[in-house]
Amino acid sequence: MSCCYVLHKVDFFFSLSLACLFLSFAFWETAIDRSSSSQFHIPDQFFADLPACLAIIAGAVEGTKAEIKELLASRRRKTTLSEDFYINATKDCAAYIENRGFISVPLSEEELNFPIAYSIVIHEKIEMFERLLQSIYAPQNIYCVHIDLKSSLSFHKAVKKIVSCFPNVFVASKLESVVYASWSRVQADLNCMKDLLHSEVQWRYLLNTCGTDFPIKTNREMVKALKVLNGRNSLETEATSASKKARWQYQHNVTNRIIRTDVRKSPPPISSPMFSGNAYFVVSRAFVKYLMQNGNGEIQKFMEWEKDTYSPDEHMWATLLKSNNHSCSSLSLSRPFIRKKKKKRAFFS
Ligand SMILES: *[C@@H]1O[C@H](CO)[C@@H](O)[C@H](O)[C@H]1NC(C)=O
Ligand SMILES: *[C@@H]1O[C@H](CO)[C@@H](O)[C@H](O)[C@H]1NC(C)=O
Ligand SMILES: *[C@@H]1O[C@H](CO)[C@@H](O)[C@H](O)[C@H]1NC(C)=O
């Protein structure tokens, strides 16, 4: 596989990464100023977590399962913070930002000069959203948050309140009702892409994330990895298996869920072959512009054609990126997020 990044297989629990949050920030601190690493000190209460956390960060959990289990058990909480908590806590933004541990100044010149854009698509679990935002937040970056139209009013309100505390975080100007595995998931990212291109921040790369993502790299590490890409995009792609071809060979009917019909679709209106791949990408500003500006209308036609396919996010980005010049290279960059496991995520296999 010459093209794009290789995912680490992550079959441990998402919540572990939350337990390691403190440690990753501790490492982040050291990374900022290596000269002071001798002063790097892990408080005693976190010391026992170190082997399990290091294993998670390194993606090598074999042999540390027992420690990880213990770590997980020690961090399990029965309740999570409510929407009301955030609606109240954000009345005083300065206090909120400080109390909840958001970074408020760029941590290095290198990061300051390399802003990253995020498209964050969420629908529930306000505390997980806050933790995700807090963990990827840097004041020089820009964040577009797409809230599912179907989400509760109080969820919308709490997200808007959190977002209102930051000049560089906003809710997408157009919101979709997202149906699992349907076009609406792609449209949510497209809405954010459009808004992000209009923002004043001259971001270099865009990463899309969702509410069950959690980063395993610091902003500084991401900047370094993105610099290595040097303008190229990164996405895990593969040739389409026979079974996955049905996803775009038949029309699908979307109501509150997506159902395959017996009606065959026309072939894809694109000269390059179809690919399958990850729904989550790392793309350059130039690529996003190219998508949005769409000189000859071919992309628009292809996107229209994609709208009644199954899980277009798992073939549209892969196909567009593979057919595009700025795209793939022999680089192999791990996606800097782990995901809480869903029932099925075929593209990881
Ligand atoms: C609301 O927030 C303030 C300040 O953060 C806090 O002192 C107060 O206890 C909160 N009230 C509720 C009902 O949570
Ligand atoms: C698609 O769904 C609509 C609304 O439920 C229904 O009326 C229509 O017959 C469906 N089409 C096919 C081809 O199943
Ligand atoms: C893509 O790459 C080919 C070969 O390197 C080049 O001839 C072509 O002009 C490029 N197209 C675009 C749109 O950059």
TrEMBL record:
Membrane topology: Single-pass type II membrane protein
Pathway membership: Protein modification; protein glycosylation
Chief place of localization: Golgi
The keyword Disulfide bond is assigned to this record: yes
Catalytic class of the enzyme: transferase
Pfam entry (one): Branch
Documented EC number(s): 2.4.1.102, 2.4.1.148, 2.4.1.150
Keywords carried by this UniProt record: Disulfide bond, Glycoprotein, Glycosyltransferase, Membrane, Signal-anchor, Transferase, Transmembrane, Transmembrane helix
GO cellular component: Golgi membrane
Record-level Gene Ontology MF annotations: acetylgalactosaminyl-O-glycosyl-glycoprotein beta-1,6-N-acetylglucosaminyltransferase activity; beta-1,3-galactosyl-O-glycosyl-glycoprotein beta-1,6-N-acetylglucosaminyltransferase activity; N-acetyllactosaminide beta-1,6-N-acetylglucosaminyltransferase activity
Membrane-spanning residues: 12-28
Name this polypeptide is given: Beta-1,3-galactosyl-O-glycosyl-glycoprotein beta-1,6-N-acetylglucosaminyltransferase 3
Organismal lineage: Eukaryota, Metazoa, Chordata, Craniata, Vertebrata
